[in-house]
Description:
By secondary structure, the protein is an all-beta fold. The protein has strands at 11-12, 24-26, 31-32, 45-54, 58-66, 70-79, 84-93, 110-113, 117-124, 127-138, 141-150, 157-163, 166-187, 190-194, 200-209, 213-225, 228-236, 248-251, 254-257, 261-262, 279-283, 288-304, 308-324, 330-346.
Amino acid sequence: xxxxxxxxxxxxxxxxxxxxxxxxxxxxxxxxxxxxxxxxxxxxxxxxxxxxxxxxxxxxxxxxxxxxxxxxxxxxxxxxxxxxxxxxxxxxxxxxxxxxxxxxxxxxxxxxxxxxxxxxxxxxxxxxxxxxxxxxxxxxxxxxxxxxxxxxxxxxxxxxxxxxxxxxxxxxxxxxxxxxxxxxxxxxxxxxxxxxxxxxxxxxxxxxxxxxxxxxxxxxxxxxxxxxxxxxxxxxxxxxxxxxxxxxxxxxxxxxxxxxxxxxxxxxxxxxxxxxxxxxxxxxxxxxxxxxxxxxxxxxxxxxxxxxxxxxxxxxxxxxxxxxxxxxxxxxxxxxxxxxxxxxxxx
Length: 347
């Protein structure tokens, strides 16, 4: 931990040349973000909000993103008991920042619709209200999602990441885990209710300008353990993380900063990953020792003329093992719900 920088500054995220003013990590958003300060083409700016809500039976994921030359509005329903998933996306050509993605993770609403999809992500007095409708999500079945996320944790994971190859590239990311979730989704004739005593939600809020070809690993886990709300955010591989990693454990909303991690994904002889075999997640300080038992590999493989591509493996399963907290206490985890992904993007 001595090698990671806790951000002390405030004010604009970028300097007058469009470079990150202070790479590092924080527990709350320290900087203001504005497209006016970015020294890159609107085609290169990438803004998104991603929500995931789960209990022990189902998960729902909602993505709203303006990636400059394309927009993506996406929904996924994951059925843990039957080990099935469905993802459907709506593409928006050349939005160039016009989809109304707010500049702050704490205020500003997303209100957007076309003939097929309606999205309302609103800040309300008690938290965040998510309303989503997609026609023909699966065959002739529509998808409707109505959720309320409240009791936001005291701490969240915030990271400001540059790229060594391009000083005008940056990533400003906040992940809020362990919010209580209430509501339901309806898919055709199927209805599932998320109860506040058994369901949690997270937000992955990202803003930035990236280089063209990137790989990242990210895992997010959340659930109840011995009466406490426990969450983990683990990741590596994206940008120049020499100033800080995004690795944190949360217990009842209080963050404990971890060092560098490795997911320990098993491989075949040709070095390709065996995603559905057990993983062994560890860190460089001996504080993390987790066995990840995969259940579902949600695969997306997009390729447009060999120029734009996204190869995605989002693996859902459960974590069992131990995490040593900042005060030396050992947190024992048993079957904690987790989504762990390996993504390779070229766009």
